[in-house]
Amino acid sequence: MEKIKFITDSASDIPEEEARAYGIEVLPIPIAIDGKDYHERVDFTNREFYKLLTDAARIPVTSHIPHTRYAEVYRHAAEDGYRKIINVTINSKGSNMFAAANMGKDLFAEEYPELAEKTQITVIDSLCYTYTYGYAVVQAAKQAEEGKSYEEILTYLDDYFSRVETYFSVYNLDFAKKSGRISVAAAFVGDMLGLRPIMSIIDGEIKIIEKVRGDKTVVPKLAQIARQRRRGEHTPFFAIRADRDEVGEELEKILVKSFGKHAVCLAEAGASITINAGPNLVGCMVMGERRK
Questions:
Q1: What is the rounded distance in angstroms from the CA atom of residue 62 to the CA atom of residue 86?
Q2: 5: closest CA among 76, 99, 108, 109?
Q3: 81-118 tens-digit pLDDT
Q4: What span, in angstroms and rounded, lies between the C-alpha atoms of 191 and 259?
Q5: Residue 53 CB neighbours (<10 A)
Q6: Can you tell me the distance from the alpha carbon of 61 to that of 162, in angstroms, rounded to the nearest whole number?
Q7: Is residue 159 helix, strand or coil?
């Protein structure tokens, strides 16, 4: 059995118990809130962050994990006997994490050539946010425990990221407006008319695909889209929520009833997505058609 090290960043929102169970190294993302430096998962829980976010005078700012930190993690893994390393990062279209992870790989090779020569490192751009890619990392780590090869696991991850789709909405447009995800004019009009945007995240691109009127229409519309987009009766799916447990639970129940099987989980979105969308969100993940 190959000894494979799995690394990801805290934006993957992998629960602590899953990370421990499968030996996944989750690197905390630096976040500045009103001039004070924090690290996700170290200095606050998701629930604590929602309050920090709501109370902050200015929208918090994330920084990418430094390439020197990545080089250090690769070195430690190699020194511990890992000859295969898979590092899955947050969407490169919204963060420099993927670039930093690759720079760390180059630095590791430069500073520790003998270790690097016998260590194979693959850095994967998930083009996703939150547990949408965290789930894939957990499944890959499970496959490694089952004896799947490095190449088989990379094939799984390639297929997963070429099919996964995320859909979500927010009940308050203030954070999306501040972060630039929605224009100030569109947010103002949306609030005036009670419109809620339905957004997709596919291949790293965030797009507004529909608008619905009123909070009560959000969950039914997301469920409808999930039913239309999901392919394969045995493919995984799950709902996502932040500080609105009730809407996440409602969406999960509808999806379970629609698909006739249990959802993977009810995922909790952390800082990476709530900084831009706010804590009042709901969404879901489904597997669609292969795109590449």
A1: 23
A2: 76
A3: 999 999 999 999 989 999 999 999 999 999 999 999 99
A4: 33
A5: 21
A6: 29
A7: helix
Sign of CA dihedral 202, 193, 216, 49: positive
Best CA proximity match to 73, nearest among 112, 40, 41, 30: 112
Q: pTM of whole model > 0.90? A: yes
pLDDT band, residue 208 (cuts 50/70/90): confident
Assign 10 to helix, strand or coil. helix
- Report residue 65: phi and psi, to 5°: -65, 130
Residue type, 66: P
**Listed residue (227, 90, 248, 230) closest to 168, CA to CA:** 248
CA–CA separation, 182 vs 190, rounded Å?
Answer: 10
E strand or H helix at 252: helix 245-259
HSE of 195, CA atoms in CB hemisphere, 13 A: 16
Distance CA 151, CA 29 (A): 29
* Amino acid identity, position 143: Q
Beta strands in the chain (DSSP E): 4-9, 24-27, 30-33, 36-39, 61-62, 84-89, 120-125, 164-170, 195-202, 205-213, 238-241, 266-268, 281-287
Amino acid at 18: E
